[in-house]
Write a structure and sequence with these properties.
Length: about 270
């Protein structure tokens, strides 16, 4: 899976051959679809992407669709309208497997229903370019579009609050794994974490928690938005802006590969 390690987002617009009941939360359906596609092209890659307890170089969004009604098992998808999903990769080589697949086929199967690919949109942002474009700002907002939770050391309970000293150190570790730009040392990591605690805080928020079923599992997370303020306009300020933009590809927190932690970065 060698490549240029360029973050890439592949967005698909699909049309179903018939109406179908989709579960209330579909992030795990998106993940299953991606792994199935990769398996058709290269089973080895699909297996690597499914390994436990290792950082994954991808994230997904839940399926977006229009429903006719809501039932006990989920929403009845209206096949007259498109279904959309996005796959994000932290290494550009992975996106090429999707392109290879769709150069041969224009259909996928979701819950025993054929979906035809109407269009594919691809966008990317080089890691170095992401750093160069980052601005030192007084404040910014993160919009948590899907349930998000953060891990807490020493407990099985999840943190359901967008604490900056939890979000951004996790992002910087993920950044270090895949970036072709600046990599941060252990000393810089410690310095950054201390800087976050002293200089970044929540100014306002509108959040609520939600619990979703993902097949046999359940997971709670917060959704909504949070505005952060930063005291100093220095290199750590710019690094925080870079990581917030990077999160649009990586997602934030736990269960990113099942569509949790989808975020949007906005300068206030």
């Amino acid at each position: 899976m060698k490549g240029f390690e360029l973050p890439v987002e592949v967005g698909l617009e699909l049309y179903a051959e018939k109406d179908v009941v989709l579960p209330f939360y579909t992030g795990h359906i998106s993940r299953g679809l991606l792994l199935h596609i990769l398996r058709q092209v290269d089973p080895r890659v699909s297996q690597e992407m499914h390994e436990l307890n290792v950082a994954k170089p991808y994230s997904v969004t839940p399926l977006q669709f229009k429903s006719k009604n809501k039932g006990e098992k989920g929403y009845l998808f209206d096949s007259a309208y498109p279904c959309r999903v996005k796959f994000r990769f932290l290494k550009d080589a992975l996106s090429k497997y999707l392109i290879d697949y769709f150069s041969q086929k224009n259909t996928v199967t979701v819950i025993d229903t054929q979906f035809h690919i109407a269009s594919m949109a691809i966008k990317s942002k080089d890691y170095v370019e992401m750093e160069k474009e980052a601005e030192a700002v007084d404040s910014f907002r993160l919009c948590f579009r899907t349930p998000t939770y953060l891990s807490s050391l020493g407990t099985s309970f999840h943190c359901l609050w967008p604490e900056p000293t939890k979000i951004f150190p996790n992002l910087i570790r993920l950044w270090n794994l895949y970036t072709t730009g600046k990599k941060y040392s252990k000393e810089e990591y410690v310095e950054y974490r201390e800087w976050l605690g002293e200089n970044v805080g929540v100014a306002e928020h509108q959040l609520k928690t939600r619990l979703f079923n993902m097949g046999r599992k359940k997971a709670a997370g917060f959704v909504g938005w949070t505005t952060y303020v930063m005291k100093e306009k220095n290199r750590w300020n710019k690094a925080t802006s870079t990581l917030a933009k990077f999160a649009e590809y990586s997602n934030i927190g736990g269960n990113k590969t099942a569509g949790y932690g989808v975020t949007k970065y906005r300068i206030r």
